[in-house]
Amino acid sequence: MVQALSISSAHFLELFFFLFPYALSIALPFGFVVSVVLSIGRWSSNGELVAYRSLGGNIFNLFRVVLLFGILISMVSTFASLEWSPLNRSKFDLRKREILWTQTNSLIDEKGEIEFTFRADQHSETSGQLGALSGKRVTKASLSAFETSGNNWRNLRIVLSGGPKEEVLVVMHARHAFVEKNKERGELILDLRNVDLEYGFLSGEADNREAQFLSFERWREPIVFEINQKDKPKGVKRMGFTELLSTIKKNHDSRTGSEALFHLSKNLSFGTSPLFLGMVLVPMGIFAGKSESFLNLTMGLGVGLSFYLLGLLFSVLLENNGLGYMGWWCPNIVCILAGIHLMININKIR
Q1: Nearest one of 310, 320, 312, 308 to 258, comparing CA atoms
Q2: Domain count of the chain?
Q3: Which of 87, 174, 269, 299 would bridge with 328, disulfide CB 3.0–4.6 Å?
Q4: What is residue 109's predicted lDDT score, i.e. its pLDDT?
Q5: Same-domain check for residues 87 and 181
Q6: What's the pLDDT at 5?
Q7: How many angstroms separate the CA atoms of 346 and 299, rounded?
Q8: Helix (H) or strand (E) holding 229
């Protein structure tokens, strides 16, 4: 399979939109926290809230407005994290494989070479045949070509490495090759012509063999590389909301079900965080707001980060009891209790 992937710049914007929902699900809660603390903190420090109350205004009206926006942003953030983002991740994986499949020529032209690996559990006639020449198992191949136009490539160089130290075992030079792509099996097939083969390199002081050269008008068997990974079982991070619920219901006693429940609780808690954070941000901004925007910004980022770290801490602590998924709801409970306590005392400010 391909060891390293370099996406062509022509496809970067397209792939960015696939990842946009994931970034949105993270940015929205933090953006909401920072904006609320910046606004209310500045109003409080400048005395605007005191003036508002002196004119008969009710702080609870401000509280309701913040909660309303918190609900709206929570809905968008939850949808992005539980439905939009995982589905786009699956589409991203498929598109990435399509790009790799269709743009092999471009990748070689852009990077100069591409690398493939031969897994220990992968039966490959190519690695077996070439490994027989060196006496060691081939584990990696590096492919480069001077020209990759169409299906007729020119001046190919294939370097095969292996052994415990990943040393060079075989170097193949081909004046040209007829290239075939078997999409169904995910294979890049090279029919090499006018081949020069170099093998038997020195691998240490105890090995006194000299490199040997052979030439062939045509390599007898095609060189086959696995260019595309086979489809893997979909992970919980790539399941939509309804699929997660179905997985939890069908596998409630298995590890997959536990992972799905943990992932659902985490994303649902973090997605609805603007609503719960709004309960504590309004009184916090009133009590601790500063006139300097930088201080309010720092406080907002601290609150958002603390929310996530608190959920992570409780999920780890409860994991041993099989209740790790409930740990992500602890920050929400803390926000509710702290918000109620602060709002009860809100009338005591100056």
Answers
A1: 320
A2: 2
A3: 269
A4: 59
A5: no
A6: 42
A7: 19
A8: none
Start-to-end CA distance of the chain, whole Å, equals: 68
* CA–CA gap between residue 151 and residue 180 (Å, rounded): 7
Instruction: Between 56 and 3, name the one with better pLDDT.
Output: 56
Check whether residue 222 and residue 125 sit in a common domain. Answer: yes
> What's the average model confidence in pLDDT over 38-45?
81
pLDDT at 206: 43
DSSP, collapsed to helix, strand or coil, labels residue 210 as: coil
Structure tokens at 299: 């406080």
Question: Confidence class of residue 333 from pLDDT cuts 50, 70 and 90?
Answer: very high
Separation CA 172–CA 156 (nearest Å) = 8
Which secondary-structure segment (H or E) carries 39? helix 12-45
126 part of a folded domain: yes
Distance (Å, whole) CA 92 – CA 103: 16
Query: Span 73-78, mean pLDDT?
Result: 89
pLDDT score at 340: 85
Handedness of CA 274, 280, 283, 288 (dihedral sign): negative
Q: Please name every residue paired with 302 in a beta bridge, in sequence order, or none if there are none.
A: none
**What torsion do the CA atoms of 81, 84, 85, 90 make, to the nearest 10 degrees?**
140
Burial of 156 (0-12, 13-18, 19+ CB in 10 A): buried
Query: Quick check: helix, strand or coil at residue 121?
Result: coil
- Smallest CA-to-CA distance from 224 within 126, 143, 93 is with 126
**Can you tell me the distance from the alpha carbon of 251 to that of 263, in angstroms, rounded to the nearest whole number?**
14
Q: For residue 180, how many other CB atoms are within 10 A of its CB?
A: 13
pLDDT of residue 203 exceeding 60, the answer is: no
Q: Which of 132-141, 183-192, 227-236, 266-275 has the highest mean pLDDT?
A: 266-275
Please state, rounded to an integer, the average pLDDT across all residues of the chain.
77
Q: Is the pLDDT of residue 72 over 80?
A: yes
Give the up-direction half-sphere exposure of residue 1: CA atoms within 13 A in the CB hemisphere.
Answer: 12
What confidence score (pLDDT) does residue 7 get? 46
- Token pair for 153: 């490539």
Under 8 Å CB-to-CB from 318, ≥6 apart: which residues? 324, 326, 327
CA-based nearest residue to 66, from 310, 245, 222, 275: 275
Domain of 130 in residue numbering reads as 113-226
